[in-house]
TrEMBL record:
The protein's name in its UniProt record: GfdT protein
Domain of life: Bacteria
UniProt domain FIST: residue ranges: 41-242
Record-annotated FIST C-domain domain positions: 243-373
Record field: transmembrane: none
């Protein structure tokens, strides 16, 4: 980004600032991010960064620049900046303390996760939020989550958080690492963590709405998971056949074609009532089993899905949101990596990027999206913050 672009990104409303940098040097990128997020009375900063940055250098520079301002973030599978889809960058936003009250915490060592500890932690956060709130907490608050995308802990963590939040909406995303599947981190209190979850409670005077949805349409073909390792999210067999072979047969592709692109273009889902929740394949293994991004278990029925119009669905959804709360001054966006790969594969990447820029989306491509107690794939999930904030002195 040049100086003119950074100036254009700086502020769209009194409650938030946002921006970013695509500089490859971690210290320089952090400095450029800091410049675009400058605010007189900040409540907190959230950032999303490319995994290629030197984490130690990035962490050290962010700590020096932002000082005691709470800064939270994660590594990604691609960033969404105010310029649209921006892989290989750092992007973020700052919330004003005049319009937002924020409480934050980190849950470490998810390998020994305790539902009771998580529940008690969130309840304590809510008590602190209620003492400082600038609007009624029950109807004017939302929660954000950032989890290590390789922790295989999302379902357990989200269930505990959702119960403790007692109806306050929760949205978030699982950290990525550009499809390397080995090096995902969250950031809290001036350092990066693996195997951890960052939780953020936000109380605000601004109108907002949460959203989570996809563009996929169910086909008739189904597969039953007949052998699985749920702890590792691995399906060994589908319809009593090696999982990869049966997936290829149903999707009418060859084993040699299996890749992140083929998984993105040939999605699966689980039906719950009248709703379909995507279950994306992460990778094929040497024994022809399939590892998934989300929970998988023996007996689950998977439905073949087809594209229902990625760009059109998002545009229609946003037109409805605008009619309800007006033009957004910020959308905190958690966008599945398979949506970006699908857009690339179908030649609609620029259209999708332009839409995200138009609606002021700041966020990242995830290894899974969080919606209340649900861990899902192939969705755009987020919080839309409207412009017409009331000011309280």
């Amino acid at each position: 980004m040049n100086a003119v672009e950074r100036q254009q990104l700086n502020t769209y409303g009194p409650a938030v600032t946002y921006g970013g940098s695509d500089h490859t040097n971690a210290a320089t990128a952090a400095q450029e991010l800091y410049q675009t997020l400058a605010m007189a009375n900040p409540a907190c900063v959230l950032f999303f960064c490319c995994v290629d940055y030197d984490r130690n250098e990035l962490s050290r520079t962010l700590a020096e620049l932002f000082g005691d301002i709470p800064v939270l973030g994660c590594t990604t599978a691609g960033e969404i900046s105010p310029l649209g889809l921006s892989p290989g960058s750092i992007t973020g936003f700052c919330l004003s303390a005049d319009h937002f009250v924020v409480e934050t915490t980190i849950l470490q060592n998810l390998a020994t996760f305790s539902e009771q500890v998580a529940y008690d932690t969130v309840k304590s956060m809510l008590h602190r939020l209620e003492r400082r709130a600038i609007a009624p907490v029950a109807h004017n608050s939302f929660a954000l989550s950032l989890l290590d995308g390789m922790s295989i802990s999302e379902e357990l963590v989200l269930s505990a958080l959702n119960e403790a939040l007692s109806g306050i909406p929760l949205v978030g995303g699982s950290a990525g690492d550009n499809l390397h599947f080995r090096d995902t981190h969250v950031y809290y209190d001036k350092q990066f963590y693996s195997n951890a979850a960052v939780i953020i409670l936000v109380n605000t005077l601004c109108p907002f709405t949460v959203l989570s949805g996809h563009h996929l349409v169910a086909e008739r073909e189904k597969m039953v998971v007949t052998k699985a390792d749920p702890e590792k999210r691995i399906a060994h067999e589908l319809n009593a056949e090696p999982a990869a072979l049966e997936y290829c047969r149903v999707m009418d592709i060859s084993l040699d074609e299996l890749s992140s692109t083929s998984y993105a273009l040939h999605p699966l889902s689980v039906q719950v009532g009248d709703n379909y929740f995507a279950r994306s394949v992460q990778q094929v293994n040497d024994d022809l089993s399939l590892t998934f991004f989300c929970a998988i278990d023996t007996g689950i029925v998977l439905t073949k899905m087809r594209d229902g119009g990625l760009v059109e669905e998002f545009e229609n959804r946003m037109e409805q949101v605008v009619s309800e709360i007006g033009e957004p001054q910020l959308i905190i966006g958690y966008d599945c990596i398979h949506r970006r790969i699908e857009a690339e594969g179908k030649g609609i990447y620029s259209e999708l990027s332009d839409l995200y820029q138009r609606y002021k989306v700041v966020g990242f491509n995830t290894y899974g999206e969080h919606s209340d107690a649900m861990h899902v794939n192939h969705t755009f999930t987020g919080v839309v913050i409207g412009e017409s904030c009331e000011f309280s002195a």
